[in-house]
Amino acid sequence: MTPIRRGTRSGQSRIIIATACIFAAIATPSRALAQHVVLVVNGEIITDYDIEQRAKFDTLANHKTPSRQDVIEELIDDKLKVQIARRYKLDITDADVESSYADMARRMHLTPDQLTQTLAHDGIDAKTLKARVRADLSWQYIIRGKFQSSLQISEKSVLDEIATEKKSDGGDVGYDYTLRPILFVVPRGNTALQESRRKDAEALRSRFSTCDTGLLFARALRDVVIREPITKNSSELVPALRQILDKTEVGHLTPPETTQQGIELFALCEKKETKAETPEKRQAREKLFSERFEAKAKSYLRELRRQAMIERK
Q1: Is 13 within a domain?
Q2: Residues 77, 75: Cα–Cα separation, whole Å
Q3: Residue range(s) defining the domain that contains residue 261
Q4: Are 245 and 153 a contacting pair, CB within 8 Å?
């Protein structure tokens, strides 16, 4: 008689359950696996789902529905950009992507979770945007690194560009501003106190005539924070802020603004003229860099496409 081994029945049960799980997994493939493969770019696939998702995102971002072929070409480019970065050992980490994603959300006055929810509302997986972010980051590093010397913009090129555009005669003046941020603290959500603190800020502004005496007086006020001085060149400021500072006399305060921390003003403590950098020069330099970057990027992408193995299914 064959001896009965203890635990055999329970062992057989576990085998049956495991087998059932395997067959269930095979019978219900994931959405990604179920997608039809449209292209293979150097061994990496692009599916119908990828195309559908990118099309939805492009429509949302550009308020215009792209053609299917345009979306396909865009996805091919993104694959090539990430692949070449990998070949050059450029490690674009998930943390890098998440940081850029958070920056995008912040510029839209959203949290990352809120941006993800906004995309989901339009049927867009956040991974679609993050894949594009990864490709853009990879491409920026590649082009800046590979063509670094040819992307340098000389002072002569900047002045020639200004003269060509007839923006000025090359003698434009910029300014270095020394500012002291002054914050009237308001707890978040306390709108009643916010209005009261704005009146306090206006009162300080009306009697603020020099930084030396004005800052001493501000320090004596309750729940007021005076931050360390900051220096900004006029070329670094948006036009609206430059106009505000141009209208503010040295030793006086800018109009109060509402921030997340409270009511903030800036004391203009010093304003120095400089020709080293002006808004016109900065604009010309950025234009020249952008033109050179785009030219190098397009040329290099054409080269990568010629070398790529692109199979259409």
Answers
A1: no
A2: 5
A3: 174-274
A4: no
Return all residues near 102 (Cβ < 8 A) that are at least 6 apart. 112
242 contacts 279 by C-beta, under 8 angstroms: yes
DSSP H stretches of helix in the chain:
8-27, 31-34, 48-62, 68-87, 94-107, 112-121, 126-146, 155-165, 191-207, 211-219, 239-247, 279-307
Enter the tokens of residue 41.
Answer: 């770019």
- Cα separation, 292 vs 290, in Å, equals 6
Coil, strand or helix at 231:
strand
Show the tokens assigned to 16.
């049956």
Same domain, 233 and 183: yes
Nearest to 172 by CA among 247, 268, 284, 269: 284
Q: Is the pLDDT of residue 291 over 50?
A: yes
Say which DSSP state 253 is in. B
Single-letter amino acid code for the residue at 29: P
Q: Does residue 2 surpass a pLDDT of 50?
A: no
Residues 190 and 262 in one domain: yes
Of the three residues 274, 289, 308, the one that is the final residue of a domain is: 274
Which pLDDT score, from 0 to 100, does residue 166 have?
56
CATH number at residue 109: 1.10.4030.10
Count the neighbouring beta carbons within 10 Å of the beta carbon of residue 267: 25
Q: Is the pLDDT of residue 90 over 50?
A: yes
Give the number of other CB atoms < 10 A from CB of residue 228.
Answer: 6
Whole-number CA gyration radius for the chain: 29
Instruction: Judge contact between 229 and 179, C-beta under 8 A.
Output: yes
* Distance between CA atoms of residues 73 and 85, nearest Å: 19
pLDDT tens-digit series, residues 217-254: 999 999 999 999 999 988 778 888 888 998 999 999 99
